[in-house]
Amino acid sequence: MNPAYHYDVHLPEHAGAGKTYPVIFTLHGKGSNEANMHGLVAPLADHFIIINIRGDLRLGTGYQYYELKSLGNPIRDIFDQAVQQLEAFIAYATEKYPIDASQRYLLGFSQGAILSMTLALTMGNKLKGIVALNGYVPEFVKNEYVLQALTGVSVFVSHGEFDSVFPIRIGHETADYFQALTPRMTFKTYPTDHGVSEENQRDFLAWLTNDKGEQTQ
């Protein structure tokens, strides 16, 4: 299989033959690229396989995974295709690299967070958890997609209190939505705009480290 996305992969430096490892797939924001995500999770590189996925659509000097009709309004067929392609990519990478399929995490910012949350809803317990930074779940995903149970999926949602792209109200609505779906839900806000603060990073790195150590339900 030829994957739909360009990506870079980082294996633990002292990876042992025959061993499998937890994995973090990162998904960047609109107009960004895979390199901009790696620094967020690089401190975990000794304990996780890290795979940074680049969107397949050019946007200025960067990339995106899907296009928009307007802010908060994805073009449905392109969005649907991205979700399908990312599911296929996760399966591809799990076969190609020494990944523990019971310990697969997604971490996304903005457009990447939107896709991470959507993939949690479509893949359910095939994922161990997601980190969604400053995103939301499209209404058509909630109402028209075939959704899977999330009872065993860990979810970390964070949002900037002064987010000028997706107002903080959206963060609270997103948190309420997931709190109704899984007991393994964490929601945090930070005094930031549409970005990731050092405190936010410290919190989700600690969350990932702790969650990885827990038994999969």
UniProtKB/TrEMBL annotation:
Molecular function terms from GO: hydrolase activity
Domain Phospholipase/carboxylesterase/thioesterase: 22-200
SUPFAM superfamilies named in the record: alpha/beta-Hydrolases (SSF53474)
Origin: domain of life: Bacteria
Gene3D superfamilies: alpha/beta hydrolase
Matching InterPro entries: AB_hydrolase_fold, LYPA1-2/EST-like, PLipase/COase/thioEstase
Keywords from the UniProt entry: Hydrolase
Record-stated family: Belongs to the AB hydrolase superfamily. AB hydrolase 2 family.
PANTHER family recorded: LYSOPHOSPHOLIPASE-LIKE PROTEIN 1, LYSOPHOSPHOLIPASE-RELATED
Record protein name field: Phospholipase/carboxylesterase
Organism listed in the record: Paenibacillus algorifonticola
